[in-house]
Amino acid sequence: MAFPLDLIQDYFYRPRPRSAQEIAERKVLLRRKCEELMGFVRVLEQSRENLEEKKNFFSKWKAGRTHGKKENELKKELVMLEQEFEIFEVETQLSSNPVWALLKLLLGCFAFLLSFILLIQIVFYKLVVK
User: Fold this and answer.
1) The pTM is what?
2) Helix and strand counts by DSSP (H, E) for the chain
3) pLDDT computed for residue 97 by the predictor
4) 95-119: per-residue pLDDT in tens?
5) DSSP string spanning 29-57?
6) Own/partner pairs, 65-73, CB within 8 angstroms, 24+ separation
7) Which residues contact 26 (CB under 8 A, 6 or more apart)?
8) N or C: which end of the chain has fewer CB within 10 A?
């Protein structure tokens, strides 16, 4: 049952070729996100330095927790940025034939119908035999 759905999803989530203007806009957006994350990294470095200057245990512990949360947020944003960049690279270097995507959709629909017919046949067989 998963194979037909995978083929159908491959069709709907296929990378589509972009125009030159869309690629340029996407490039600027990715650059802007990179600069924002670099600014966030600088702020985290400064907060790490301030954390080491604290002398009270509880204030240091509380600041360390908030710093850790910010680091986790940064890691999450970096992973998202890497995924967006990979998608950008695929879209800019796309040279696939659109017929393959359509064939995947047709094959997925055929396989789904075949699986559904086999499932109905099994159910009716079990009802008739028992």
Assistant:
1) 0.56
2) 4, 0
3) 76
4) 667 788 899 999 999 999 999 999 9
5) HHHHHHHHHHHHHHHHHHHHHHHHH--SH
6) 70/40, 70/44, 71/44
7) 18, 88, 91
8) C
